[in-house]
Amino acid sequence: MHSKLASVRPKALLFDLDDTLWPIGPVIARAELTLHAWLAAHAPSVARQFSIDSLRQQRLALLEAQPHLRADLGALRRAGLHAAFATAGEDGAKVEAAMALFFAERNAVTPYEDVLPGLLRLRERILLGSISNGNADLEVIGMARHFTVSLAAAEFGSAKPDAAIFHAACAALGVAPEEAVYVGDDLLLDVAGAQNAGLRAVWLRRAGQPDHLAAGVAPDAICATFDELLAWLEPQLAD
Span 52-60, mean pLDDT? Predict the structure, then answer.
C-alpha cells in the first residue's frame, strides 16, 4: 500500500454495488428491452415515437439541464418517461407501472460467484457497508442482511465522489474514515472519491474490465476477485 494509512487497522469495509458485486450492463439492457415491450403494449404511441436509444438520449439531455438528477437515477428515468408520455400524448398515470416493471427487472441481478461466500467470510471479521449511486434494492435482491449500513445516493441526496456520502457511511458504522476501506470498480467515483474522503480504496477490477489506471489515481490495492481482496485484507486484521 502506498497510503500513509497503511498502519491503521481497518474496522469497516464498504462496497460499491453495480459492477462490483454483480455485472449490471446486461441487466439494464434486459430491463430496457422489457420496458420498451411494455410500452408497445400499454403506451403504443410512446413506443412508436421513442426507441430505447432515443429515450436514453432524452435522459442525457435532461441530466445536462438538471444535473442534480445524477444523485437519483430512478428520478431521472421517471422524468424522462413523463416527458416522453407528454410528447406522445399518452396518459402519464401509466408511468408508475412502467417504473415498477423496470425496477423489478433492474433488481434481477446475479452476484459474481465469489461474492456471497466472500461476504460471509468477511462478516465474521469486519463491519460491512455499501454505498451506491445506483438504484439497486438490496432487500429485493436478498443481500441486505450482509450489510450493517447501506447508503444510496438517491436517499442520501448526494452521489459519489462527494465526500459527504462516504463520511455519512463511516459515521453510521461508528468508524473514522481512516479506519474504513472502500471497494469499487470505478477509478474516479470509487477509488479517487473514497481516497479524497480520507478512506483507503481498493480497485476491484473484474476480468474483462479495462486494466489501465486513470491519470493521478493510485488505488491502495488492485484485486480481481474477493479471494484477492481477502488475501490483501487478512494481514491487516491479524491481531
Answer: 96
